[in-house]
Amino acid sequence: MSVNPMAYEAQFFGFTPQTCMLRVYIAFQDYLFEILPVVETVILKKLDGFPGCKITPFQIHRCTEKFLLLMKEQFDKLFSKMEEVVLQLVLNIPKNVLLPEDKVHEQYPYSKEQFQVLQDEIQQLQQQYKAEVSAGQALRAELEEQKAVQAELEKILQWFDGLENICREHGISNFKESFAFLTQKAKKLQGVLKAVEKKSKKMK
């Protein structure tokens, strides 16, 4: 059998030419092995009509086996020649023929060097894309952090607005005075808390 892979032919036919030839070879060989026992049976029936014949069934079987080997040797020789001719002249696509799906290579031919340049550009673009994706993820994470900080700042501003409203209710407009007022209130609360703690201890 031929060792040439014939990949282009396999692409066109859907099977390798060597596989086709192997199937033909096996089919003929199977047919040969099937037909000879039939021939042997026919010979034995014919010999039954000759009572004086001294040829035994074993001798006939030996003769058919020899004939089978001879036929196989001759077929192998002929088949190798037939295979060479079929693979070269029938199942072979000439070098100057392009399959329809490969016409694009004829319109846009590229050398190995040009193809390598394209591969390098693709790799660079992929790396740039990955870098941009990573940068986008980092920006989104930072934006989430900024949203959280903004929410906290809004809470603090609300707290200051509430503090300012309380101070205005007590007639304090100055910010320093507001803190002094709150400090005094806090001290008073601490004093009240301590007094409550002392009373609770005495009650225990």
TrEMBL record:
<dbReference type="GO" id="GO:0051301">
    <property type="term" value="P:cell division"/>
</dbReference>
<dbReference type="GO" id="GO:0000444">
    <property type="term" value="C:MIS12/MIND type complex"/>
</dbReference>
<protein>
    <recommendedName>
        <fullName>Protein MIS12 homolog</fullName>
    </recommendedName>
</protein>
<dbReference type="GO" id="GO:0005634">
    <property type="term" value="C:nucleus"/>
</dbReference>
<dbReference type="GO" id="GO:0000070">
    <property type="term" value="P:mitotic sister chromatid segregation"/>
</dbReference>
<dbReference type="InterPro" id="IPR008685">
    <property type="entry name" value="Centromere_Mis12"/>
</dbReference>
<keyword id="KW-0137">Centromere</keyword>
<keyword id="KW-0498">Mitosis</keyword>
<keyword id="KW-0995">Kinetochore</keyword>
<keyword id="KW-0132">Cell division</keyword>
<feature type="coiled-coil region">
    <location>
        <begin position="115"/>
        <end position="146"/>
    </location>
</feature>
<dbReference type="GO" id="GO:0051382">
    <property type="term" value="P:kinetochore assembly"/>
</dbReference>
<keyword id="KW-0158">Chromosome</keyword>
<keyword id="KW-0175">Coiled coil</keyword>
<comment type="similarity">
    <text>Belongs to the mis12 family.</text>
</comment>
<keyword id="KW-0131">Cell cycle</keyword>
<dbReference type="Pfam" id="PF05859">
    <property type="entry name" value="Mis12"/>
</dbReference>
